[in-house]
Amino acid sequence: MTDRPWLSAYPSGVPADIDATQYASLVALMEESFRKYAARTAYSFMGRDIRYSQTDSLSRALGAYLQGLGLGKGDRVAIMMPNVPQYPVAVAAILRAGLVVVNVNPLYTPRELEHQLKDSGSEAIVILENFATTLQEVLPRTPIKSVILASMGDMLPFPKSLLVNFVVRHVKKMVPAFSLPTDKAKVLTFKDALAKGRSVKYTRPSLKASDVAFLQYTGGTTGVSKGATLLHSNVVANILQNEAWFKPELAKLGNEPLVAVCALPLYHIFSLTVCYFMGARMGSMNILIPNPRDLPGVIKTLKNYRVNQFPAVNTLFNALANHPDFAQLDFSGLKVSMGGGMAVQQATAEKWKKVTGCAIGEGYGLSETSPVATANRLDNTEFNGSIGFPLPSTEIAIMDDDGKHLEIGGVGEIAIRGPQVMAGYWQRDDETAKVMTADNFFRTGDIGVMDASGQVKIVDRKKDMILVSGFNVYPNEVEQVVNLHPGVMECAAVGVADDKSGEAVKLFVVRKDSTLTEAQLKAYCHEQLTGYKCPKHIEFRNDLPKTNVGKILRRELRDE
User: Fold this and answer.
1) 3-state class of 359 per DSSP?
2) Helix, strand, coil shares of the chain as percentages rounded to 5?
3) Residue 140 needs a FRET pair 20 to 30 A away by CA distance; which of 74, 125, 530, 531 works?
4) Is residue 533 within a helix (H) or strand (E), and if so which, with residue range?
5) Where are the beta strands (DSSP E) in 141-238?
6) What phi and psi values does residue 142 have, to the nearest 5 degrees?
């Protein structure tokens, strides 16, 4: 590896490199955890605890059923569910059957779902009945031959399972009417698939580190959604990298099983690696939150636990920290709050620390990097606005447009090299060539800078940059400043066409204080920002468009 200035800033006990070759596949790593933590609670859902031993036996049965469908090694199986206990079972089952997981956002429109199923070539799908109506619209035009239909109460004990399903279907009316065409696909309930799987032979597949484990589709905020091809070796490496980074600090909590909040959707790479796989690796208990937007519901659930880990995106941290009931919870056990998926705002971090007593440690990564590439030290007590240091076995370079590595302090595109970087985009060699350099660095499209200690700071997304009279304006900087105003709940800055300056800054704001005026906010901005960075236009909104993970969609605001 090249010179790595960040190694001297590593916490005590964190190695420079990890050995990703110690596991032949993700299956080997998972099965070790199933054995080691068999008696521990893996998941808690609606008051029901599910042990690692149960996840082990259920996933083995479902894996056997999938093999019995005639699916062969490397075939793709989609999962379209929120955070319900069938999700972790399905992920383990698909991998243990030697197949490839295709994670699907359950809130996709029919058009988005059709694209992903066709592009991935998925032949089976495990789906919650709440979203079956979307599948119904596109099923005949996809390669899907088998549907496994789950319902919310499947893994709850009788009679609670019946009650939950009745309420979900008939009281809350969360399951739109559907009729899946059985002439196009074999349709079986989740419970029946498990029963069939228990009666057939399971064959442990021969898996290699170079086999594909996931097709993780990028959000599509930059155009057509592309599948990042993640190998078993990529995800194994990132689990071990995260473990190496977290372990010295988490060891201070003793040997008790950790309790983590799993509110981020498991189909998102951040939650998949940090909650699901890291949870299994460390024998933690994940509290499954199926709908993080239901803040009263989240708070009611968390009242029953003493939480140690809380991974989230800025919007969830912000919404909870500003909810009056959240402050009443017990935070005495909270040691790690991990921010990722989008920039953590200083105002949010300060409010979260004030409410919980725990600082947010920001990390950084992408679907293409399995995902974590950098992270702040866990012993940081204050928000510092950086995305931290490269993880063990990871190199970060700052590049100019020609791919030349810049000196320390130079502002350019963040590029990542390490064992967690994807094999490429699924069947898109042209797109892969755009982002991979000849020496295997992945170009992220994010603009950043590295200081002398190796700490990295994001300046902005390359494509979100606003050019005002020849000067670069980075929306993140404007948003960081505006979010510190006490009257602002959240905001987004975009560039709009301007006759005089080419582009001007337009600000969309959700108010915390309903009396806040445009004039007051502009005056505040002029106090905090150089003239060309100040918003020329301000529009107050009741809410801002977001992805299901909570990332604000600047592109949608720009397109308006």
Assistant:
1) coil
2) 35, 25, 40
3) 74
4) none
5) 146-150, 186-189, 212-217, 227-231
6) -120, 170
